[in-house]
Amino acid sequence: MGLWEGNFRNKVPPWGVAMAHDDQFTATGPSFTGAGFPRAGFSTKSTDTVHGVNVVGTSCGVYGESLGPGQESDRQPEVDRTGVFGDGDRYGVHGIGRTFAGVLGFVRRPENSGGVFGIALRGAPGVVGQSRIDFLPDLPQGDFTLHGGEGTGVLGESGRGTGVSGESGSGIGVSGSSNSSYGGLFSSGGGAQVRLDPSELISSPATVGRPGDLLAVKRGSLASLWFCILAEAGDRPAVWGKVHLGQASIPNPTLDQGAQGQDVKNAQGLLLAHGNSPGPVDGIFGPQTVAATRAFQQAAAIVVDGQIGPQTWGALLNHF
């Protein structure tokens, strides 16, 4: 009895893989050479099959892993009830679609997570979308201007739900940037509405911010909108101006000794930015704030009265 005859009884030919019609055999055995491809556990040049791979498993349908020199594996998927599981140093699953999609995810039941779910550890993105004229097997590093992409990195659409949703405990939920166009574009058939959802825990402007930041602050059932005028620096917190409906969006009340509140804190931050220390930036207009105001007014060649009125506000906001 020859090698082929013995293996045929066991449904395994000597080169390691037996495949036939009508689901006769299960593919098994080591990788082999001579198929016209790099060594692989299974490969075929067939072009008329309906499915390249069609298998069902109790914990995973298809399990693929790429190991480097000296690496070992227990050949078990980390997540049960998985259709495709890929594990690799660079890509777990890498799909290229010429006319539709490289990777398509579909969920039958709406209560489940989603069609495509990305998780990353140690600060890497869970899902990365790029639009570029070339392809580099690396994550984007802010070099989008060098590669000429004109499409959409990540596109979210929804009939009644949410197109794109981002959450963060302490960082940025959704971030968008552009060198020459829009960092973010919002449109709606009923008006371009953007929801800023302030926490009940935030009842005053933040101590950090960058000029141009918008912040929704909630106190009880009422909310107000603030615009960052000056970034924080050292011990000085960021300076915010309250956005008033129908009024100027810069702080403009007249302040003098004894005044308290966020407007005083804004003024103290601006005085400190001009090199006139008002003492602690605590929202209390005390003697040190009066002295700092007088010193600034004298340097700005305006009326020296120790009060912060419209003229002093204008000088504080414009004399940089």
Automatic annotation (TrEMBL):
Domain of life: Bacteria
Disordered as annotated region, ranges: 65-87
Matching Pfam families: PG_binding_1 (PF01471)
Domain called Peptidoglycan binding-like: residue spans: 260-316
Ranges of biased composition (kind: Basic and acidic residues): 72-87
UniProt-recorded name of the protein: Peptidoglycan binding-like domain-containing protein
Native source species: Streptomyces capoamus
